[in-house]
């Protein structure tokens, strides 16, 4: 959202740190694409089957595995009749044209930008970090080992350390 606001609506930022962002096409796992094509069918799954598919899908975003508490935190909003319908509806409404709007503008990013990615991200592969880095002039990139798309859960200390380093550098650049 910050990247979109910056590029399409001129929102200024002192710096940007992009962590496993959906910013370049293609995106979406094979399961995501299957659901997108048949969202109306998936929305009708029995609750227990939906829960199983949802939990299995969300678990693939983690490299190290999710605790039962973390899995529940990520899946509970998508359970029940309202949550289940909303889960499949948001996938059905996802459209790469929104990403396509940004891609030609990435060279216009005016804020110092740092990109952080999980080395084992199976949802949005790490090659996107390098492509994004190449598209945003002056950007820097860090790929965090042993982390998937849920880098904040897979490698929280590594991510916090990287964010702190980036923020310290960004503040130092503005005060120098």
Automatic annotation (TrEMBL):
It holds the Pfam family Abhydrolase_1. Keywords: Hydrolase. GO terms for molecular function: hydrolase activity. The keyword Hydrolase applies. Coiled coil: none annotated. The keyword Hydrolase applies. It comes from the Bacteria. Residues 96-156 form the AB hydrolase-1 domain. This is Alpha/beta fold hydrolase. It comes from Mumia xiangluensis.
